[in-house]
Every structure is written in structure tokens, then in C-alpha cells.
Amino acid sequence: MQRYVASRWIPWVSAVLLGLASSAVSANEPHWFDVDVTAYNASAAQTDPTPWVAAWGDELRPGMRAIAVSRDLLSLGLGRGARVVIDGLPGEYVVLDKTHRRWTRRVDLFMGEDVRKALNWGKRKMRIRCIGACAASPARRSGAAFPASETAG
After folding, report:
1. Mean pLDDT over each residue of the chain, to the nearest integer
2. Which domain covers residue 1, as residue numbers?
3. pTM of the full predicted structure?
4. CA 79 to mean position of chain CA atoms
5. 38 and 84 both lie in a single domain
6. β-strand 83-86 against 124-130: which pairing, if any?
7. DSSP assignment of 76-140, as one string?
8. Fewest CB within a 10 Å sphere: which of 1, 86, 93, 147?
9. How would residue 134 be classed by pLDDT, with cut points 50, 70 and 90?
10. Do 24 and 35 belong together in one domain?
11. Are residues 35 and 97 in the same domain?
């Protein structure tokens, strides 16, 4: 009887151990998020009465590689100061703003005052991933997002 019980548990325990091993390996691999990517401008009509101030109080400047993320992405670790790569776009972007609550799985590229460029961008399905740790650390909260040398031209 005991051999029968043990033989039934061995495959289950093996499956659990293999699952833990594979998740440990995948934890080191970059995690990609499929999102809709749109664009926004520093305009009171598109944001609020202070369009050059982001959701957490960061000052936006023309040419910054800043993004706003939907609130569901915040809970996945894409909080203030998280640096991301957008598949198909050069360089890094930093999370400095939040989108309206109605949006999910969305990233907004900050395009300064260039409304035509934002309209031409439209809405694209793309992939993004964090660079380094996704969750914003205290060190990220204290400094500027990008020095002038790291801004988009």
C-alpha cells in the first residue's frame, strides 16, 4: 500500500521541482509586456492645467524620453523612475507619468509640444521591458530622470 502512495507522489513532486527550477531560470530573463503605445503632448487640453509637470511632480522638458504608463502597469513594477526599452525604438525611456484611469496596458510617449508628431505616431501595438529592477527604488525617486545628454533630440 505504501509503495502505491509513494509512486503516486513522485511524479507530482518532480513536476513541482521542475516548475520551480524553470521559474528560477526565467526570473533572470527580461520580461516583455505587450502594450498599446500612443503619444501625448505638453498641452493643457491633453493633460491638466500644468502640462509640463508629470504625475509625481517631475518637470518634463522638450526632447525627454519620458513615458506615461497605465495604472495596471504600475502594479507590475513599472513605477516612477523605472527605465524601459520599447521594442523597435532606439534608447531608453523613463516612467515619469501616469495615463488616465480608463486606460489599461498602455504606454504614452511624451512628445513635448509637437502635436503633429504625436498624431502621426497614432496607436501601435509594441513590446516593452524593464532595464534592471522594475520596481522603483528610493534612489530613483530622488534624482532627475535623464540628464540633458540622455534626452531625445
Report:
1. 79
2. 1-30
3. 0.69
4. 7
5. yes
6. antiparallel
7. TT--TT-EEEETTS-S-EEEEEE--TT--SEEEEE-TT-HHHHHHH--EEEEEEESS-SSPPHHH
8. 1
9. confident
10. no
11. yes
